[in-house]
Predict the structure.
Amino acid sequence: MNKKIITAISADLNIKNNQVETTLKLLSEGNTIPFIARYRKEATSNLDEEQIRKISEVYEYQVNLQKRKEDVIRLIEEKGLLTEELASQINKASKLIEVEDLYRPFKEKKKTKATEAINNGLEPLAKMMMSYQSEINYSKFINDKVKTIEEAITGAKYIISEWISDNAYYRKWIRNYTYNNGTIVTNKKKNATDEQKTYEMYYDYQEKVKYIKPHRILAINRAENDNVINVNIEINDEEVIKFLESKIIKNQYTKVIPELKDAIKDSYKRLIKPSIEREIRGELKEKSEIQAIDIFSKNLEKLLLQPPMKDKIVLGLDPAYRTGCKLA
């Protein structure tokens, strides 16, 4: 067991370390959460099902997070590109998505516009543009695969776009901005069929991402899966582009400013925004499903605990298929 993770869980749930350790030991032995909550109270010091489930989920997540950190560090080290600063950033990451953001620049990429441009020998041109060189001889990058100066500049911009998209700091800022300021917007599709008007509420609907209720998320997802509505997360794109420009463009007087601004817009709209939207919607879906299961279990518990006969006290119950259920 990882002592560091156990200490963090106990602090988060305001319980003792030995309660966490005992619970994890019982779970590892194959005991179920309801069984531990009901019949191992003396061992866990009366932890309830919710606390036990939280311990299980958090510990599993943290173990997976630690393993992923180790794998990412090893993979980057094998490429000979690991630095102390990068290793420190990876080890300090508190979420899997942050680790993946840091690993993104080092991943083996499938064929993209940027990889194609790199194969065409345009990476040095992209580096020149990113270093704000005022005088660049574009013609020397023309070859059998790059026929014109315009093609060379376009290819270099694709490379810069991918560099921007792979930056973990930019992605984290945009993800937080989108979650805190974004609005989920739904519209009915043309020619969509919804005969019972099950999803009528979402034909033209919008709500802030950070405030939307889990049951609405699930309803919107069902309507989208049934091809009734389109779903998007809308934000002030200009604010995001302005942020990227302030971080990337350090020299306002270079001739490559228009090209860099084009690359920034392309990176955000083509690469970053769709990816961030998928991540946020995936996270909302996961949280909504967890809450739905929790609500269902509580409702089922109340149903099962209802008295079998009105105004009668049941002392004992003897269930049987052949002779029937008997109540005392």
User: Anything to note?
Assistant: Residues 70 and 91 are 9 Å apart (CA to CA). The first strand starts at residue 183 and ends at 188. The chain has a mean pLDDT of 90.
